[in-house]
Amino acid sequence: MMSEEEIARIRKAQHVVATAVHPDTGELLPWAMRFSSFIPMNLPIAFGLLFAAPTTANIVFFQWINQTYNASLNYANRNASSTVTTADLLQSYGMASTSAITVGLGIRHLLAKQLSGATGSRLICLNALTSFFAVGAAGFLNAYFMRKKEMETGIEVMNA
Questions:
Q1: Residue 82 falls within a domain, yes or no?
Q2: Is-contact 101 68, C-beta < 8 A?
Q3: CA of 18: how far to CAs of 3, 66, 70, in Å?
Q4: How many domains does the structure of the chain reveal?
Q5: What are φ and ψ of residue 28, in 5° steps?
Q6: What's the confidence (pLDDT) of residue 159?
Q7: What secondary structure letter does DSSP report for 1?
Q8: How wide is the angle at C-alpha 146 spanned by C-alphas 82 and 133, nearest 5°?
Q9: Is 98 part of any domain?
Q10: 70-111 pLDDT tens trace
């Protein structure tokens, strides 16, 4: 019979394996691609989206970085029973990145009058609003396009 301490050690080991190993492939997920790393990886990205000077270059850069990270996270945690081609991945990544940049720049253009005279907390709020809509739209499209094949063909829930 196992002691409480041994059972606790085994449960902790199971938890570590469940968060670090892909359930379908058995491959070790890189630290940055684990769901447990989502918040620490996104903090610098969110900081850049909110507080970098809202220039066209900064909007393009931070939206691109955000979608690159989201695409890699979606790919690493995909259901391995659904075959995804390189063309599918590139199309999904391109759609998400393009939509994020387009929405970010489009909202910036729509709010140009309000932004031109804004300073301090008003400017931060308007920047946050711009980033929120761009990230939200692109995050949805990223997840949709990266997982589209799984939604169309289904996934293997149980193997033979």
A1: yes
A2: no
A3: 23, 25, 20
A4: 1
A5: -75, 125
A6: 64
A7: -
A8: 155
A9: yes
A10: 888 878 877 777 677 778 888 888 888 888 888 888 888 888
